[in-house]
Design brief:
Length: 206
């Protein structure tokens, strides 16, 4: 139950901790198996999750198999720990929305109607939005407009996003349209992290 003003500090603390456990449980349950494994990542990435950079958002780029998606799942988890860890006040259980660009673009198609509308609202308001492989799909004019609705709402409310893409933000205009690309550039300024190395699936960086 939500706390009231006459809760004792310890009752409030334990309520916050319950919220945190619930948020972590929800996130862990939807994390794909291979991305549940802890990994070490670049300091700039953890700095973002810990709120030590000026940017609201994080853009992870690099070649195939270098670890972009794995890094993104783990850094979202770290963001969650930092947002609601024991002792840190939070209004409730934070929601992290996660999606792949391919399924997102598909779900935003014109005939999706009220389902599409609900999805847009969910992605506009989630406390953190993670979009995997942003350049993997081609957006129609309709989809670009819907993407604009999602990103503009997040942009004006400074709600963070985590993006992975093998294409740099400056080259995304063709894919997501100029207005979304412009907002993303500002949201991720100073926080575009290039993961370098060989394809880990082929034994790189091990
Ligand atoms: N820091 C890491 N340490 C160990 N293994 C890692 C690390 N990062 C990623 N991996 C492993 O490397 C493989 C590829 O990672 P991932 O799927 O994140 O790559 P990607 O860059 O998203 O690839 P793609 O461009 O094809 O989407 C996976 O098996 C993943 O578990
Ligand atoms: Mg990936």
């Amino acid at each position: 139950m939500p706390s009231s003003s006459d809760d004792t500090p310890s009752a409030r603390q334990s309520w916050l901790e319950e919220r945190w456990v619930e948020a972590a449980r929800r996130f862990d349950a939807k994390t794909p198996v291979i991305y549940q494994q802890e990994i070490e990542f670049d300091e700039r990435v953890s700095d973002w999750a810990l709120g030590n950079t000026g940017s609201s958002s994080l853009f992870l780029t690099g070649p195939i198999g270098v670890g972009k998606t794995h890094t993104a799942w783990r850094v979202c988890r770290l963001w969650l720990e930092n947002a609601v860890g024991p002792g840190i006040p939070w209004k409730g259980s934070p929601v992290i929305a996660t999606t792949r660009a391919t399924s997102l673009f598909d779900a935003l198609r014109p005939d999706a109607q009220s389902e599409g509308r609900r999805l847009i609202e969910r992605l506009q308001t989630a406390d953190l939005l993670f979009v995997d492989d942003l350049a993997a799909a081609r957006a129609s004019d309709w989809t670009r407009e819907r993407l604009f609705e999602i990103f503009d709402e997040r942009y004006i409310n400074r709600r963070p996003v985590v993006i992975t893409s093998d294409v740099l933000p400056s080259n995304l205009t063709e894919i997501i349209g100029p207005r979304v690309a412009s907002r993303l550039a500002e949201m991720c300024r100073g926080n575009v992290v290039l993961l370098d190395g060989d394809d880990r699936r082929k034994g790189g960086n091990r």
